[in-house]
Amino acid sequence: MEERIMHYAIYSLLGVLLLLSCSKSLTLDKVVNPTEDSDTTLVQTAEKAPNQQILKDATLLKTVSDSLPIIESRIKAAAKIEKSFFDSGIDHADVRNTDFFGPHMLTSAKAVDIASVGELFSGVTKYAVEKLNIPRQSIDQQLSKRIGILDERCPFSNVPDCTRSAASRYRTIDGSCNNLNNTLWGRSFTPFERILPAVYDNGVDEARQTSVLGGPLPLARKISSQFHQTSLKDHFEPDLSHMNMEFGQFLSHDIQRNALSTGTFGAALDCCGSSEPESRSKCLAIEIPADDPYYSQFNRTCMNFVRALPTPKLDCTLGQRQQLNQNTHYIDGSQIYGSDEQTSTSLRTLSGGTLKTGGDATAPNLLPKDTNNAANCILPASDANVKCFLAGDVRVNQNSALISIHTIFMREHNKIAAGLEALNNGWSDQIIYDEARKIVGAMLQHITYKEYLPEILGDAIMNKYGLKPLANGYFNGYESKMNPTIKNEFAAAAFRFGHSQVHDSLKYNNKAQYFKDVFLNPAIIYDTAGGVDSITKGLTDSYSQKVDERMSSHLTRHLFERKAGFGGDLAAINIQRGRDHGIPLYQQMKTICNVSSNVHEPSVWNALSSLYRNPSDIDLFSAGVSEKPVPGGIIGPTFACIIAKQFEALKKGDRYYYENSGDQAFTLEQLDEIRQTTLSKVICRNTGISFVPTNAFIKDTNVRNQKMSCKGVSAIDYSKWKCGWSNWGTWTSCVNFIQVRLRTCKQQKPCATDFCTGDVFEIQKCGSVRNVEMPQIEAKIEQLRAILVTQQNNYDIMDVNTAQDILQTFMHQNAV
Ligand code: HEM
């Protein structure tokens, strides 16, 4: 403790010295108003021509400049203290020594760098709020000016150069340059946005822990154990397969990956390891009540929980604490390909456009092996050959069902790459990779909007938000003002509804494998009895649980459990994460979504509200997941509203949405081909499974969903991607011994424009030509050729009927 005070004193002194040295450059700092082009040296201007707004800006600038060295020294002091937890062995360099360490805690170094600036911005905001007496409700508005000295530090102040990618047919790997006016929208390593301002205890960054009536909120673990407990009997969703759950998780990993705090040198924080966990600003340990129905038998009183890392806002202004998405926000297959160049390159063979594969003779064509075990999986001691897997998202190994879906889509990419290469278009590895990635991304979007979302949201909401794909033609609904960024309320609450769908077990080889045994477990993927096939078949053959307040004990007691009694509780984590992120209250979201009052069964509402001092305190996750479902859907109206708005933004705010027209577009015939995609077909093409339900999300026990044979399922029709001449069309009828046929040159992107040489049409003699007529006919053919050459410029593509007309008119005038 004394050491901490000493450090603090030294750093405070250093802060004062820094402040003095800063004061000279202070007057040269610029305050940039993002709505204006010109930079203004506000302090100097204020001295010459004071007016209220400028003085206010100048005051803010001075406050910020004053605060910077103070906050920086506080951060350094805090880092020293954090290091002491590492040095004393409380935090673990070997992350596997931390209770229920999971892959969601594998934070990248880049996120940690951004967070160091986020921490600074939060500190400065708090300082300014206090010094300038800014009311809580208007923190972000009052601090909405960009300030040069903060801009210099802000990771988002340099916008990417999009001149090359603007016209590109392909998305960038990191999602930048999609929106050409806001080039950072949707990029990986950018903040989540919010529907409503955050609700923090101090208005700026402290997790919500206080009731609106004062006093503490109910403990997250208490709400979980009393409200989110597992039902005794199965409460499955009668129509939906467990695949519905698993695809939801796979999709979630495409669009979001929160960045969680790490310790010194990337160690795993152990927030239960120190005697004063509340003194660690990165910790928000979950308290376990002494009378806990499960954990008390293990005398466990604390569950590890680290706070999500802070990030500056995308516009680099000060304000409330925000959280960081490490993945691209778009539905673009980034869980398969990665969200940054380095990851994407590391997953490629760099030959034939294919992705790397792993596996062995008995279990071939698996994902590449994570030979260094960077994902920290649980590997069997008995088989050194078994390794975890690499994919675009590090959480791939979280459970064996997720690994299976990843494997299937990796195979689909490679299948498409091989199909494209076989067309002999002369495409390079890069073009084949890009085009195959584009097709797989489009398939994912099609499956999401056509098959997955309708089961979640129901028909009426799909229609209301314009989420249904078209049957044909282009979608002309791109809106450049629509911000696709993932909303915090969606990531930290609404889209976690899927946690309630998880069954106690995975069906595998016709037996039930408890979920707790498939966490971080690659071994069953290598199983000769079926691995990926068997798990995938099990997902379509078993039910999803109902979306309600109940969650499987495998998630609420045994999450990533390594030692009996020391697993995690995902319901408690969801509630605590909501408080950590300052997620708005359930009542606020209900109001903004215009949801009427009676959306819970009375017994459910009573059970939930009785846990809180006041209904206004109720956490969004708990109340949202327990609402009665909307007609035709499986979630309640508040979550449906948040989720529908998000998927609307992901569709209309994505320039590369697969149904869009434009420079980047598929041709209409390619688009029709993409529209044939179903998840079941993708499964058929990439596993040895013989029968699947026609719609993989619905159980085949449902009359609307018969089983289909995989035998008839072919690969996509690659001919739609072939460059050069199409096959010859049919001959026109024979007119006076002459007939014509046509072909077209397919030089859509990415074909090279000089791909076709030769004629668009071919003319031949027909009928019984007598020798004497021959020279005449040959002369006519030459004349007709000249006419067709001239005429074809009048048509985009000349069709056979036009050719027939031209032939007839010509022969009428020049009969042989
Ligand atoms: C076996 C199944 C699953 C397990 C074990 C699991 C586990 C987890 C864990 C440990 C987290 C991190 C929690 C935190 O620290 O805040 C998480 C986050 C999340 N999960 Fe799941 N999950 C599963 C399935 C699903 C499904 C089916 C969905 C949706 C349909 C889903 C949606 C989410 C979302 C949206 C997040 C937040 C992601 C982020 O922002 O990083 N999960 N899950």
TrEMBL record:
<keyword id="KW-0325">Glycoprotein</keyword>
<keyword id="KW-0408">Iron</keyword>
<keyword id="KW-0964">Secreted</keyword>
<dbReference type="GO" id="GO:0005576">
    <property type="term" value="C:extracellular region"/>
</dbReference>
<dbReference type="InterPro" id="IPR019791">
    <property type="entry name" value="Haem_peroxidase_animal"/>
</dbReference>
<keyword id="KW-0479">Metal-binding</keyword>
<protein>
    <recommendedName>
        <fullName>Peroxidase</fullName>
    </recommendedName>
</protein>
<dbReference type="InterPro" id="IPR010255">
    <property type="entry name" value="Haem_peroxidase_sf"/>
</dbReference>
<keyword id="KW-0349">Heme</keyword>
<feature type="binding site" description="axial binding residue">
    <location>
        <position position="499"/>
    </location>
    <ligand>
        <name>heme b</name>
    </ligand>
</feature>
<dbReference type="Pfam" id="PF03098">
    <property type="entry name" value="An_peroxidase"/>
</dbReference>
<feature type="signal peptide">
    <location>
        <begin position="1"/>
        <end position="25"/>
    </location>
</feature>
<keyword id="KW-0732">Signal</keyword>
<dbReference type="InterPro" id="IPR037120">
    <property type="entry name" value="Haem_peroxidase_sf_animal"/>
</dbReference>
